[in-house]
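Sequence, please.
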């Protein structure tokens, strides 16, 4: 069972007592830690996901577990707590209208050195691999001058992404020639699985990055930033702050790709719409020049 389909029915008798106070406490902790806002309707989902952490750590009630977590008595548990509460739904070539735009942008920049992409909420890897495939096709090479950095707050999904192994149903909608070119079929115990080819995996570097943190270990400048279907979990001030930190990491003509239900127009003056859910810098001079830039909240030079 995946995290995504694990919520219990409201009337299911509960293994652990779970009060609205416990829910609110968890909601406030994950908001502070990851910026994720959880609606009241997520109470059952939260119960089922954190109940698993109680089982794994041996605690018998939510109150004690949360006291220990907040009291700094289980430093490592924060990672599992956070991983448990993220929603990682993704797919290959999701929101497919973005990929021809990316390909076109890359073709225009052929001969300009490395084409750089930051995939900032990469989940289990389907998004960065889709980007890598499109860029191999745009440069007509399995070793294109491309560098993709793929990040997520959730350390479990990053492991899955780096491994690049998927069940065949995940790629069933992919064109056969793409599938043949970019994936290997599993044999024996791996039958029914596919693995992204080494060349594709070599184009992507994975790192844990919490978009809420002040110091991102990220160096621009980027030709494209993908930030899709993660801002929906953040409130508007948080979205605005993140966007203002993306701006100096973009190349002056860089593109920012957003999710289908994410509208940044009323959140930022740094970016303007350049197509459906695609943005570019309002003022290209706000982007990075040719030199590498790191993003920290205090100063782009530190
Ligand atoms: C719904 S998935 C979207 C995946 C992919 N971008 C797509 O559009 O298919 C959202 C991802 O955002 C990640 N996420 C949530 N909060 C985050 C944060 N504060 N910093 C970085 N990633 C975060 C989650 O772990 C999850 O993998």
């Amino acid at each position: 069972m995946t995290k995504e389909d694990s919520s219990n029915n409201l009337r299911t008798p509960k293994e652990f007592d779970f009060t609205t106070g416990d829910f609110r406490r968890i909601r406030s902790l994950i908001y502070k830690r990851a910026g994720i806002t959880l609606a009241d309707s997520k109470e059952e989902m939260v119960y089922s996901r954190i109940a698993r952490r109680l089982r794994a750590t041996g605690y018998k009630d939510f109150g004690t577990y949360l006291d220990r977590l907040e009291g700094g008595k289980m430093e490592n548990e924060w990672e599992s707590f956070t991983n448990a509460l993220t929603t990682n739904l993704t797919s290959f070539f999701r929101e497919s209208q973005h990929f021809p735009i990316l390909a076109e942008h890359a073709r225009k920049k052929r001969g300009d050195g490395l084409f750089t992409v930051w995939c900032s909420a990469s989940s289990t890897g389907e998004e960065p691999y889709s980007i890598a495939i499109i860029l191999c096709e745009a440069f007509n090479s399995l070793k294109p001058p491309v560098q993709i950095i793929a990040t997520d707050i959730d350390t479990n999904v990053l492991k899955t992404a780096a491994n690049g192994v998927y069940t065949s149903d995940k790629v069933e909608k992919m064109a056969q020639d793409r599938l043949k070119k970019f994936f290997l079929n599993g044999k024996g115990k791996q039958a029914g699985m596919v693995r992204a080819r080494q060349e594709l995996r070599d184009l992507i570097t994975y790192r844990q990055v919490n978009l809420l943190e002040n110091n991102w270990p990220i160096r621009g400048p980027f030709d494209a930033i993908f930030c899709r279907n993660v801002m929906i979990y953040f409130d508007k001030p948080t979205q605005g702050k993140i966007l203002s930190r993306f701006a100096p990491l973009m190349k002056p003509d860089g593109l920012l790709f957003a999710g289908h239900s994410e509208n940044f127009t009323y959140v930022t003056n740094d970016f303007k719409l350049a197509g459906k859910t695609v943005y570019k810098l309002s003022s290209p001079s706000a982007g990075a020049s040719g030199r590498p830039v790191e993003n920290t909240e205090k100063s782009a030079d530190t």
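The mean pLDDT is 93.
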